[in-house]
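Consider the following assembly input.
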Amino acid sequence: METLLAIVIGLLYAAGVYLLLRRSIVKLILGIMFFSHATNLLIFVAGGLHKGQPQFATDGINAVSANPTDPLPQALILTAIVIGFGITAFFLALMYRFYQATGTEDLDELKEGENK
Amino acid sequence: MILPALPILIPLITIIFLLFNFQRREWQPWIGLTGALLQLALAIFLAVQVKTQGILVLHTGNWEAPFGITLVIDAFSSIMLVLAGIIAVSVSIYSIDAIDRQRQSFFFFPMVQGLMMGVNGAFVTGDIFNLYVWFEVMLTASFVLITLGGEKKQLNGAIKYVSINLVASLFFLAGIGLLYGKTGTLNMADLALKLSLADNNVLMNTSAVLFFVAFSIKAAVFPFFFWLPASYHTPPVAITALFAGLLTKVGVYSMIRFYTLFFVQDKLFWHPLFLWIGGLTMVIGVLTAASQYDIRKILSFHIISQIGYMIMGLGIFTVAGIAGAIFFMAHNIIAKTNTFLVAGLINRVTGSYDLKQIGGLYKIRPWLSILFIIPAFGLAGIPPLSGFFGKLILISAGFNAGEYVISFVALAVGLFTLFSMVKIWNEAFWKPRPEGVPPYEGENENLPVSMVIPVVFLGLITLTMGFAVKPILEIAMNAAGQLLDPKIYIQAVLGS
């Protein structure tokens, strides 16, 4: 499972970088979303995968020996997802305003506007 | 003890008051200013507390140290909180007249307070994931501030600013994830303890590099600085001044915190790297500034150049070096914000930021030129202003540590900084008014008092820091001593 997820994370990062380097702002935003999903999965895997194990133990000693699932990475990912969601919403609104103001969503147009 | 949470709570409560009164535009600046003044007063009180009682620790929700989120204020944090308070007060006063009505009615002041909440949170937290959250709070507020008003130019700068900062945050998050996977803890003190006991530190370098990239982007350090000059000149100057004073410094703060507290094992790799990066940052920043003619762009490139000095202090890694970095950071936050505020005053008089359109200001506004000279020559490092002593401490620390190359580079960069400041001085104040330029709009109007007060206030601090070097240096030395002995921090947080 770790190997499979590692490959998926790698692919997501690669796709994210590819999209970030495109000229369209929509693709830039998609790239950042891919990046953030890849990062979330990375935390998930790095926190350790223990399939079918309890998160909380009723009697402490047995739980430690049974290698319990760590709930913390999932809490971290949840926070990161919420933040990522808010930021993406903001970025989409920003892109829309930019499109309204300039009539284009091509990043190369940014250069010309720089000194005006 | 709730004290360490107050730097976060005060801006939060101010935001609530501001939002409840958002239809009363004339109240907004005053509520914001009250919040900022309270923050400054609290920060000074906390600094005194830290001095007398040692490190202040709060375990939120009564979760003991490695499990819950811990808020910690040590000497370094308390210095940064005071500086943040000073900037918040100055910018709040300046914005009363400098920010137009429309921006004021569309949540300008709540966003400034939101930014302060993020900045203060980053300074007090003792938990790396919590630090990420405060970074996001700060960034979100800054995103809104940089786009507020929605001018084409602003949107242009905002897209670069937003996208690069998001990528940096994700690098930071990836670093946290990997570090948690390896150590099983997020608490900074616990991390420091575990990493000092771990025998295989090579594995930690992946996280360390990810953190380094993330903080370098936030701090605008050499290979990652390009977003800053592309975006900082676009919003109104009060917002730029706030960003210039605080945002990049939060990156430097985190870097100093991380690389003195827990990534201290691999010194042979990191410290020469810091020196190289610091040197390159200084040189590239100052050289690119020389070719600019927009005052705000010149000043933006100088932000980068001066970040280099702080990184240099971290690279020297002696008590004097870190103390120099802290002193320099204090000087830079004050002087840099002040130069931007003066640039705003120049724009108020002449209606332009372009040095080719401005001239003869010394003749019509002699006082303004004095207000400009104090922070500008402070940045350039002319004695007896604060920048001179900042550079002196750093360079002498460099010589004492045997780092001759970086010390000479720092000296040379000081000279180029002087060149840039003299350039602004010559072009804006001394040369006769360029021919064919219509009379300035604000030539016969008096400058609003609320815009002059913060400039005078910050100028006085720059002067005081120059004349009272010894006590301030002692405070910085004390903070640096604490930073270089992580045991004190670990003991304060974890007990025993």
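The first strand of chain B starts at residue 56 and ends at 59. Ask yourself how this observation constrains the way the partners meet.
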